[in-house]
Amino acid sequence: MELHELKNKAIVITGASSGAGRAAALEFAKYRPAIVLAARNEEALHEVAAECTDLGAMVLVVVTDVTDPKAMINLANAANDWAGKIDVWINNAGVLAAGEFDHTPMEVHEQVIQTNLLGYIYGAHAVMPFFKAQQKGILINNISIGGYLPMPYGTGYTASKFGLRGFSEALKAELSVWPGIHICDLFPGFLDTPGIHHAGNYTGKTLRPAPPVYDPVLVAQAMVKVAANPKSNRYIGGMSLGLKLSHALFPELTNKLTGLMMRRYFRSADRMTPTSGNLFNTVDYGMSTNGMFGSNSSPKPYRKYVAGALIAGVAAGFFLISSRK
Asked: pTM for this structure?
């Protein structure tokens, strides 16, 4: 399918009020499809809807909490009733919480998993009957490199992302007898989104994404591409594939280095009061696409060399540590 054929396609986007979801809505709107915007923040959704309408898209706003399976069924029904079909469903809504595992309230870990893992499962479960009735459809999961690389001081987040990758792999295998239904997983590197500002934070320190950070527009563009030409896995940002390979080749060392980097950052970071952020309720700040951390707005042609250098660096560290034992 050519990109221009996205016109009049029915596309559902969860987490559309900010960050990568908002960027995706605006990117898809250029092709004038029928877009269903879903999130908890109604005011922000209507702002995005107005921008998409100005670009020529038809838009429906459905206020939705992805942790509620009935709300996800309602979202799928509303989209199908409005557009007469669902061509693309984008699972994108996500939250973050940081802090030492045992110093972070258990309900916080649970909420992260409810949103990042069960929310995606609820979405897939709600849309799949429509895909099977049509014998076609594209499910896009915005997983992040966190599906391969564990995040120290973000154990609930890591559990949700590792679980999500496993869920998607199993679903792909199950749906192999449905050639018209595609599951597409995206693994972007660290993104410059407001998600860090919205995060639950129990570290006592301010949070910043680890450099390099990438513009969420890159994720939006990748979503558009796989919606037009489905691809099972797509890695976004030069460091994404490198981090995956680093953990695959040197898992123990990679884990130690990520923990070391986090602790080093916390020693110099500014202090802040613990907060649950947007975990349990929507917030009224940071509803743009970017988090203003200074991002790369275009993929670099030398990204494979960056990945190679990263792996070589980790390998050198591994052999250096081994030689000292």
From this structure: 0.91
